[in-house]
Amino acid sequence: MKDAADHLLAMKELEWDTPEWRSVRNEQLREWVRDENALRFFLDLSHFVEIYDDLVDQDKPVSAADINSALFAVLCYMPSNPFFLQHRLTLTPLIFTSINAWADANEFQNGTMSEKALAYGLKGGGVEVLLSIISITRGVEYMRSVSAEIRRIIMAHETFEEYLEEVKDVV
Predict the structure, then answer these.
(1) What pLDDT score was predicted for residue 170?
(2) CA 14, CA 63: separation in Å to the nearest integer?
(3) Over the stretch 64-110, which tens digit does the pLDDT of each residue have?
(4) Can you tell me the distance from the alpha carbon of 32 to that of 14, in angstroms, rounded to the nearest whole number?
(5) Integer CA distances (angstroms), 96 to 85, 88, 90, 92, 158, in order
(6) Averaged over 4-11, what is the pLDDT?
(7) pLDDT by residue (tens digit) across 41-61?
(8) Residue 45 belongs to what domain range?
(9) 140-154 and 19-33 are packed helices; what angle lies between their axes, rounded to 10 degrees?
(10) Is residue 137 predicted with pLDDT exceeding 50?
C-alpha cells in the first residue's frame, strides 16, 4: 500500500474525477476506513453530492444515468446501509451541517475576497463526514494521525487560485 504522500502526489498528477483519479482515491479511502459498509456509504454519499453539485452549479452536463444512480444512492442504498443504520445519530447532523455549509459557500463565492476564501473552505466541509467515519471505524487516535493529510488529499484537486478562476464569472 502506498503511503498518503504518494497518493497525494498521484492525485495531483491525475485529472480530477477521472476513473484513474477515483481509483487512487478509493484505494486510499479503503486504507483509511477499513470497513466495507462504511466505505460504501461514503462513496454513495460522495456520488450523490457530486451529481447534486453539478445540477445546481450547472457547470457541466449531467446524464440521466448519473441522476438515476445518485437517486438510488441517496434514497435506497444509503438509508439501508448497515454502517449508516448503526451510526445515523452521529452521521446525520454532520451531513446536515455539510449541506448547509455547501449552500453558504455557493452564496459566498460571489462576494468579497474574504467571502470567496470562506466559500473555498466550506466547499470541503464534507470531509468532516469522512473524518467521523474514520473515527468510528479506526478510532480517534488514528483519525487524528491522518486528518491533516486527508484534508490535503481531498482538496488536492483544486488550489484556491484555481477556485478563484472558476468562480470569477459566477453570477
Answers:
(1) 65
(2) 23
(3) 999 999 999 999 999 999 999 999 999 999 999 999 999 999 899 98
(4) 20
(5) 16, 12, 11, 6, 24
(6) 58
(7) 999 999 899 899 889 888 889
(8) 4-167
(9) 170
(10) yes
Q: Over the chain, what HEC string results?
A: CCCHHHHHHHHHHCCCCCHHHHHHHHHHHHHHHCCHHHHHHHHHHHHHHHHHHHHHHCCCCCCHHHHHHHHHHHHHHHHHCHHHHHHHHHHHHHHHHHHHHHHHHHHHCCCCHHHHHHHHHHHCCCHHHHHHHHHHHHCHHHHHHHHHHHHHHHHHHCCHHHHHHHHCCCC
Query: Total domain count for the chain?
Result: 1
Residues 6+ apart with CB under 8 A from 35: 83, 137
CA distance 167 to 146: 30
High-pLDDT (> 90) share of the chain, %: 57
CB 7 within 8 A of CB 153: yes
Q: Rounded to 5 degrees, what are φ and ψ at 3?
A: -85, 170
